[in-house]
Structures are given as C-alpha cells and as structure tokens.
Amino acid sequence: MVKAIQIGLGHWGFSWTKDVIPKVPTVQMVGYVDTNPETTQRAQAELGVDPKLCFSSLEDAARHTDAVLAICTLRTEAHYPVVKRCLELGYHVIVEKPFTTTIAQGKELVALAKAQGRVLMVSQNYRHQPAPILAAQLIADGTFGPLNMVSLDFRRHGPSQGYRYWDMPDPLLADMSIHHFDLMRFVLGDEPRRLTCRTWNPPGSPFRFDPSGVATIEFSKGTVLSYRASWVSSGPVTPWAGEWVMDGAEGEIIWSSRDHFRNKQGPDRLALLPLEGKADRKKLDPVAFPDRTGTLSTIAQVLETGVVPVGFSSGEDNLGSLALVQATILSASRGGDWVEMTEVMG
C-alpha cells in the first residue's frame, strides 16, 4: 500500500479525487492540500473527504502525514514550483500533463528527481488503453514490416461540447495535442527528428488562440506522420485519441481509442488490413486499470516493486512529448518552417 497526498482539489483535481483515486486500491490517501478553503470544503461536503486530512500548505501536510507519494493535480503553470517542492521534501511524484511549460524546467525537475532518488511520473493516461497498447506491440513485433506513413486525425467541436478554456494559449498544441504527441512516441517506439506545423483560428471561432492545425513529423526510423487536428471541426467527431492509419510495407493497422462522447463510452478498435487476405478486426483485451487509474496504479506498482514497466511515462521520457509541443508551436510561429528537434531539446 502506497500512502499519498493530493495537491490541488480544483476542477480537474476534484475529478481525480472522485473518479480516479478511489478506484486504485494500492493507494491510501493520508492528506489533501489546497490553498482555497472553498475548494477544500467542496471536497469535504460532496466527496466525504475527512477534514482532519486537509491542509492549506504542502509543508503542513509533510509535517503531519507519512505519505511517500504526491499526486499533483493543479493548473499547468503551478506544476513546476509544486513538483519541485515535493521532490525537495522527498516525495515521489505523479503530475498531470504537461508537467512543465518549458523544456528547461522539465530537465531541472528530472535532474532533481534523480538527485533525490525519487520517481517522477507524468500522467499520460492515453497510454493506458487497449488499442494503443496492442498497436505498440504490433509495431515492436514488426507486423506488416517497416512503417512508411502514418496519418492521425482529431476532430471535435468545442463550442458545442462544453469546452470552456477560450483564452488558453495554444489550446490545440499545448492542451490537447500533447496526448497525441505522446501516443506517437509510445506506439511507434521512436523519436521525432524534425517537423513542420501550421495553425489557424477560423472565422467565427470563440477561441482567442489557434484551435486548428496540421503538422508533418519525420521520425528517426524514417516514418512520416501526417497530423490534422481541430477543436472547431464540423466533421464527424473522432475518439479523443484520434483516428490512426499506420501504413506498413505489407498492410495497414487502423485503430482508434478513448471513444468518449456526450458521457457515452465506446470500445477501442483496432483492425489489420493485409495487402492480401481479409481484414482482421482484433478482439482487444480489457485493461485492468485504464486511463488515469492506469497511471496512478502504475506508479504505485513501481514504488512497491521497484520494477519499471515498458512504456512507463517518467519525467525523463516525457521530455520527448513536451518537446513535440514546443517544436510545433515554434514551427507555427515561423509560418510553418521546418524545426529540428535538437533545436528544442538543446
């Protein structure tokens, strides 16, 4: 059993308290931290959080609990200072994505975690779904031979689906696309080499910054990935993880994941389309701890066993996904110029 504190009980943190943490039996909550009394009172009133376990500062929680894990579920700009302080206090940390706003901050936290001998994990929850897990295994096994081209489409209409962050900078690339960028690296088992990206804000959009974009990403093993995404699409809605077509030398792997829409959840899907023969729609094994419960369960497992599983989204690994965010934003700011990943990673 891993004893934990949660830091941040706001909108998304409340969701963690309600929908995620109770479903992971290997985690025992011994403290909750939030500086806003109203937020804390809501968690107490609606979720039955024990007032004796609530603290207004991280230092208070550290003095009065024996937690070893900090679950950081705050707004993005608070990630860096809070995660840094947690590591300094000796906590292992799991933090929501993106775990920092700059590569330099991310590298600093990774170095600090290593110096402290602590585990730093980023909650890249899209990895913990049946379709991308199988897709990654198929690619690793060389099914259909070397990959040639991958296409990924994401379509949602934010104004009609409850989206509310109209003034967020880079609402597509920084807030949504990081999930897709992380899946690219996870499924392909490869790192990007360079990319070009264009973004725009269509007429009549309620967004202040660009909600639509296209990118071409070249990976180190030669795969070229075409990415098209929009928060203001009037086309058919895609699953949250997008629609993927992965073209190999001997056939295609087609899949989609996280098919949540209007509080309904559909199954992940994956099919094999060989050059010769019939299409084969795979039966996907359920994941014991899917989505965010998967990230929390995984770090608890790592802390209990000391064994780091394949595909673990450590802070160090996640620098690659954060770099894709930074590189696409940089390319878009330059009108679509090619950006080498080395420029962003330093």
TrEMBL record:
<dbReference type="InterPro" id="IPR000683">
    <property type="entry name" value="Gfo/Idh/MocA-like_OxRdtase_N"/>
</dbReference>
<dbReference type="InterPro" id="IPR055170">
    <property type="entry name" value="GFO_IDH_MocA-like_dom"/>
</dbReference>
<dbReference type="Pfam" id="PF01408">
    <property type="entry name" value="GFO_IDH_MocA"/>
</dbReference>
<feature type="domain" description="Gfo/Idh/MocA-like oxidoreductase N-terminal">
    <location>
        <begin position="7"/>
        <end position="123"/>
    </location>
</feature>
<comment type="similarity">
    <text>Belongs to the Gfo/Idh/MocA family.</text>
</comment>
<dbReference type="InterPro" id="IPR051317">
    <property type="entry name" value="Gfo/Idh/MocA_oxidoreduct"/>
</dbReference>
<dbReference type="Pfam" id="PF22725">
    <property type="entry name" value="GFO_IDH_MocA_C3"/>
</dbReference>
<keyword id="KW-0560">Oxidoreductase</keyword>
<protein>
    <submittedName>
        <fullName>Gfo/Idh/MocA family protein</fullName>
    </submittedName>
</protein>
<dbReference type="InterPro" id="IPR036291">
    <property type="entry name" value="NAD(P)-bd_dom_sf"/>
</dbReference>
<feature type="domain" description="GFO/IDH/MocA-like oxidoreductase">
    <location>
        <begin position="135"/>
        <end position="241"/>
    </location>
</feature>
